[in-house]
Amino acid sequence: MHVHHGARRPGAPRVTLLTEGTYPHSHGGVSVWCDQLVTGMPDIDFDVIAVTGTGREPLAWELPAHVSSVLSVPMWGPAPAGRPPGGRSGRRLAEAYERFLTALLDPAAEGGFAPALHALARAAADGHLSPFLRSDTVIAVLTSVWRRPGIAVREAGPTLHDALTATALLEHALRPLSAPAPVEGVAHAVSGGVAVLPGLAALERHGVPLLLTEHGVYLRERYLGYRTAPYRWPVKAVILGFFRLLAEESYRRAALITPGNRYNRLWEEEGGADPAAIRTVYNGVDPVAFPHAGPEPDALTLSWAGRVDPIKDLETLIRSFALVRDRIPDVRLRLFGGTPRGGEGYRERCEALAAELGLAGTVTFEGRVDDIKDAYAAGNVVMLSSISEGFPFTLIEAMSCGRATVSTDVGGVREAVGDTGLVVPPRDPSAMATAALTLLGDPVRRRSMGEAARLRVIEQFTLRQTIDSFRAIYHELAAGKRQSPVRVVLPAPAVSGSGSLAG
């Protein structure tokens, strides 16, 4: 779906936002960040290439006039029309695909990933890639690579079903290559992974500089997700190999990488990014839009805000709440946030856990709230239980509202909180419960921490600082003051695709 919106303005800098599953088709932290960036820079012309689910998702945000167009690239909708190439073109594409697969599965061949990927991108631009990846040829190519001596997954005995599954997953993952690549300005990928694909194509074909912002560590989250995915190891080896090499290629080719915290920076350097090409830019909020939340609720309450998703680990939060309730019988846990499509099963699992622990009625799933400030005001203490985060909006919003917080020590959480909240290990209900009990039992301390948290946001994490930083970066890249780094093929890091990065 291609939505034309505002008219282009001669002379205005042009930025193409590259998104996946977020702005402008859904709500959530990264979508909020994109909306803040766009609405805060009326002097910049924006386009959006949005990787979506089916392509039928409605716009969730009101777009300002300086957003010229939105192109939706569905990963899971109907397959793109077309026919695979024949003759010499077909043979060349099959050879490129073989090099691509070999790079995913053979550490000695990883240098062939980037050239093969760009060959696939050219085929996608001609409308040939998706039909090719749905042909019998690609199954034969994959099974041939799997059977080679020295390929580790050969020992797992890959099956025809594995080949069909891996090929289907790759076909969907590579669909963003079919999007028209930006031809001017700056391509700004607001996450790693498949959203970057049109930006890499734009850099290769038109020299458009690539700016990469990672809020969470995309590669780490893929490892976390695939750890429990219902696929055999041969399938995981292909898909995780793709995500790892795509991350490394993105880090090497980006003109500038702007992680939201120092934790992300370490991953990016490990993945091959030039430290000189990394500039940390923290997320920010408007302290006027998130004023002090006012008096605490009369009944002791823990509140949480976010999307209902396994990565938010609500199960640990619910288990910790059961321990808190053993000590404070009248305490409540209020959970604010929507359930994304496909996440209904996870919410049902969390509701069943609450019932099993005897918490029905004291744990409430309240859905999306019209004003997120109400979610923070609803709690004496605001909780964050995620197993992966970047620099979480819900945390700095709650801090701006003057609430004390208990958060898991993931991503940039400790950088955000400093000494104005309590930080506990992830997946540890006992530690989380102890921290919550500490603050619930000490109103003077939690109010003092809430006041310090708001002051910390005002001093370090304002929206104006974020917008001014990115405006300067856009002008810098558009003017060619930073050159895209030369591609350097580095040896594979000392980790494997077995999920060892997900620790």
Automatic annotation (TrEMBL):
This is D-inositol 3-phosphate glycosyltransferase. It comes from the Bacteria. Coiled coil: none annotated. Residues 14-275 form the DUF3492 domain. Pfam families: DUF3492, Glyco_trans_1_4. The gene is pelF.
